[in-house]
């Protein structure tokens, strides 16, 4: 519970604070709670914005380095191919060839017909997958070739059903 003040609020206005008079002896010690501080700031040019707002432009392309006779080895990125067992290798090769044959057969059915924009887009995607699958087969990456050929087959079946 709060304690009530000793004096009534109505008469609180009439109360004046009592100031203590300081003598000259007590003024010897500075009792200023906030002494005056001086800040020394380095001189500035007055510019707040840096001279260059955008990053510097590149000077140009690097000059070609001297190459040896191994240009083909340096330009091709190394290919990481999963190791397949002989049975998996043969199965992947067979599945890739079957999927490619099905995709090309379905593409052949679409030739000579007027296609919508969506169907033309499907044809270009199918052709891209077939091309990539053949490239993977040339470097004997049959797992990638199988995957790409399967994608081409699925898209070609979708195209054939929409004709």
Q: Please outline the major beta sheet.
A: none
Q: Return Rg in Å.
A: 43 Å
What structural class is derived from the secondary structure elements? mainly alpha
Task: Tell me the fraction of residues in β-strands, as a range.
Answer: under 5%
Q: Helix and strand succession?
A: HHHH
Mean pLDDT across the residues is: 76
Helix content: 40-55%
pLDDT < 50 stretches:
none
What form results from the Cα inertia axes? elongated
Number of helices: 4
Distance between the termini: 89 Å
Q: Your description of this structure?
A:
The protein has a domain at 84-162. Helices cover 45% and strands 0% of the residues. It has helices spanning 71-75, 86-110, 117-138, 142-162. The longest helix has 25 residues, at 86-110. The model has no long low-confidence stretch (mean pLDDT 76).
């Amino acid at each position: 519970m709060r304690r009530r003040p000793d004096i009534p609020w109505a008469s609180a206005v009439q109360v004046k604070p009592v100031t203590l008079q300081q003598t000259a002896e007590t003024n010897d010690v500075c009792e200023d709670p906030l002494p005056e501080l001086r800040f020394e700031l380095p001189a500035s040019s007055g510019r707040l914005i840096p001279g260059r707002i955008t990053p510097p432009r590149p000077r140009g392309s690097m000059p070609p380095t001297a190459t040896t006779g191994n240009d083909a080895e340096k330009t091709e990125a190394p290919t990481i191919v999963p190791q397949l067992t002989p049975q998996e290798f043969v199965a992947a090769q067979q599945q890739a060839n079957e999927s490619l044959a099905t995709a090309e057969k379905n593409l052949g059915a679409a030739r000579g017909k007027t296609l919508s924009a969506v169907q033309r887009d499907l044809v270009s995607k199918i052709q891209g997958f077939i091309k990539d699958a053949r490239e993977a087969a040339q470097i004997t990456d049959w797992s990638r070739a199988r995957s790409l050929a399967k994608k081409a087959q699925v898209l070609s079946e979708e195209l054939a059903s929409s004709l």
